[in-house]
Design brief:
The protein is an alpha/beta fold. Helices cover 40% and strands 16% of the residues. It has a seven-stranded mixed β-sheet, sandwiched between helices. It is globular and about 45 Å long.
Length: 189
């Protein structure tokens, strides 16, 4: 497994309104596996947002990440970190080494050669396409498949604001988000 000390490293690609909640739900499901204390949720669109009381593992990981210079937010079983576009995903392995659990990144930016190199080092890639974007989805699937890691395309989950809130605050993966990440869990098993 790449980068993280337990649980794997996955990139979720798609529009922010879809990729971030799916990445959070996936991180939570992976954090529930044996040996994981929490999960790192890295986003290229900022790590702010609502927070919940953090578990001990998330607090400990946030402290370790802060010592590495990252602005980490513990919330529930997640530690959220924003990756700036300049470093793209380059710091992901360095940051995920400080977390006793999986590392999931929600990536919504333009792909560059440097980004593709980092994506190629993940254990799996997840594409969450916008609804009714069949031609773009097909192009994205083709280019991502060439990077090497298993690629899972998941159907965009139906809009469930409460499920999205529970996921991004690190509390639970429920409803359509839970169902959306099941195929990814099977690939990582």
């Amino acid at each position: 497994m790449t980068g993280s000390s337990s649980g794997g490293s996955v990139a979720v690609l798609g529009p922010p309104r879809l990729a971030t909640p799916v990445a959070a739900a996936l991180a939570l499901r992976l954090a529930a596996r044996p040996g994981a204390e929490c999960a790192l949720l890295a986003t290229d669109g900022g790590a702010g947002g609502p927070r919940a009381p953090a578990g001990r593992g998330a607090r400990r990981a946030a402290h370790a990440l802060t010592l590495r210079g990252a602005a980490a937010q513990p919330t529930g079983r997640l530690v959220r970190v924003a990756l700036d576009q300049a470093s793209a995903l380059g710091d992901l392995d360095r940051l995920s080494a400080a977390v006793a659990g999986p590392a999931v990144v929600a990536f919504s930016g333009a792909r560059e050669p440097e980004t593709d190199a980092v994506l190629a080092a993940r254990d799996a890639l997840v594409l969450v396409p916008a609804p009714e974007s069949d031609a773009l989805t097909e192009l994205a699937e083709h280019s991502l498949a060439r990077l090497g890691p298993p690629l899972v395309t998941v159907a965009p989950p139906r809009a469930e604001p409460l499920a999205a809130l529970l996921a991004v605050t690190g509390l639970a993966a429920t409803g359509g988000l839970r169902a959306a990440v099941e195929p990814v869990l099977r690939v990582l098993a």
